[in-house]
Design brief:
The chain has 209 residues and is of the alpha+beta class. It contains three helices and eight strands, in the order H-E-E-E-H-E-E-E-E-H-E. The protein has one domain: Lipid/polyisoprenoid-binding, YceI-like (Lipocalin, Beta Barrel).
Amino acid sequence: MKKLILMATVLLASASFAADKKDNKKKPADKPAAVEVKKMDITGGIKWTGYGVGKSHTGDITLKSGFVEMKGDVPTGGEFVLDMESLKTADSPKLQGHLQSPDFFDVKKFTTGQFKITTIEAIKDAAAGAPNYKITGDLTIKDKKHAETFMATITKKDGVFTAHGETEIKDRTQYDIVYNSQKFKAASVLGDKLIEDKIKIVFDVQTKK
């Protein structure tokens, strides 16, 4: 009888110890809630500068539509549609008509262009007001698509994100914009009619409230 009581006591003690040990195990920490990716519509446009011999011309193109994807305050992607029929220059109506013609952007046939972001890299320790993101994407003009990269300064105020940046399209001819390029006619033949292949692009966009 005493042996039975002793065995029962030992078993109860063992069970109690095992239960205490189980309860004392640390529970796994809860995983942080995933940050939602939000799609935000944008508005804005670009300013362009083209170069000839000893001269330059500037103009604008507005966005037809577009959006950015934000994970919290961090941009993760986006897509912009350019309204090519909005292409204009204040230099002269004649030049504007020529730029819209098949010699250049052929805006009646190719009514839109597109820039689709493929990668976004934050620039560590960027100074205030300096570019804080490096953005690469596919630019499509006249149905020709090529990768372009630019530096951007993205800021937030009152819930609205703004982005300013610039880049240079180094070779317009890859978008089938070949008029008076020295790649297709000798510079000696073109003379002062030569048009450089680079185009400077400055963009300013912001999210809609």
